[in-house]
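Sample A.
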Amino acid sequence: IKNELIAQLDFVERTIKHPVDGSYLDGYNLKWEAEPQQKRSLGTHLHLLEALMKSMEILDDTKYQSSIEKIIDILIHRFINIHKELVYHQLELSWKPVPNETWLGHNAEVAWIVKKAAHSIKNKEFIVPSKEILIALSNNKIERGFDNMYGGIFNRFKSGKWRWINSFGLFHHAIFSHHENKGTSKRIFFHQP
C-alpha cells in the first residue's frame, strides 16, 4: 500500500503542481490536459495538505515536507485575506481572488488544519501566524456568524445553519479554547432563548 500511496502522490506532484510557484491547479480534462480557465482552489490545497500530512505519518518519511510547507505558505499568504478574517475559495492564475461567498465553516476548518500542520512539521515560521489566524477566524466566526436569537452558527452570514458547520464549529472552538488560548476567544456556542 505504501508504494501505491507514493505513486498517487507523485502523480499529483507531477500533474497538477504549478512548475514555478508550487501551487496546485484545478481545471483539467479527462486526459489530464490543462483547460483554458484553470484556477487555484482552496479545497484542492486544503485537502491535499491533509493527505500529505497523513501520508508523511504513514510513510514515516519527510519526502513531501517541502510540498506541505509550500501549501501552508500559500494558504496563509494567498487564500486567507490580509485581515485574516475571511478565506477565499478560488484564485485566478494571477492570484486574484474570484468573488465568492464567505463560508464560516470553511474558515474554521482552514484555520484548524493550517495550525495543526504547522505544529506537525514543527516549522516555527508558520506556528505563530497559524495561531493568529486561528484566533482571528474563530472570533470572526462567532462575532459574525453566531445566532444570538436561536443559538448555533450560520454557515454563510445569516443565511442558514448546517449541521457540519455547528458540529465542526463546536469541536474546533472547544478544543481551541481548552488547549490553546484560554480567555482570548469567545466561548459562546449553543444556547436556548
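Sample B, a different protein:
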Amino acid sequence: NHSFTGKTLIISKESNKDSGLIKLLESGVPSPVYYFFNKHDEVDFRQLINEISAEPYQIIFVSLDDAEKISCNHIDKSELTTLFHLTQAILNTQRYPAGVMYIIAQHAFQVGSELINPFATALLALANNIHTEYPKLGLKLFSIHDESDLDTVFKINPEKESDIVTIAHNTVYKRRLIKKTVKNQHGKAIEFK
C-alpha cells in the first residue's frame, strides 16, 4: 500500500473538475494541490514544480474520458502535451517527486467487450516511454474501468509494480509491454518497446 506524504499534485482536464473520481482523490490524499488544464493551455510547469517541491510531493495525473463519447474526428492532444511539459519541467528543475507519480487513465485497455479510449491508450504509451527513459520519476501506470477501481489502485504496492496495470471491477490485470528488436533495410537494429 502506498502512503502519501507531503503534498499531492493532482493534474487533470478542467472538464474533470467535478467528477466523482476527483472527489474520491480529494478525500484520500493529504494536502491536495490541483492543476486543471484545458486543451488550449500551453503550460510552463517549472514554477509549479518549484513551488510544490519545497516539501516532499507526489503526482497523480488523471485522464477521464468516457470511451463512448470520444470522437475520432476531433483529436485532443492536451493530455499528451501536458504530460510531456510536466515531465520536461521536472527534469529541467531536477526536483523529482519524493513519492510515486501515478498516471491513471480510464478505459485505456479493453477488458471484456467494453470500448477503449484511444487517447488514454496513447497517454499510457507515452508515460511508459517516459518511465523507460527516466526511471527516477517513479511512474506507475494504471488503466481503470470506473471510479470504484480507484481504491484498488492505491492498495497495490507501487514499489513492486513495473507493468501497466488494468483494473476493471476491482480485478487486477497486468500488461507487460514487450521489447522487440528488428533490423531496418540498412541492417541497423531498431528497438521497439
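Observation for Sample B: The longest strand covers residues 7-13.
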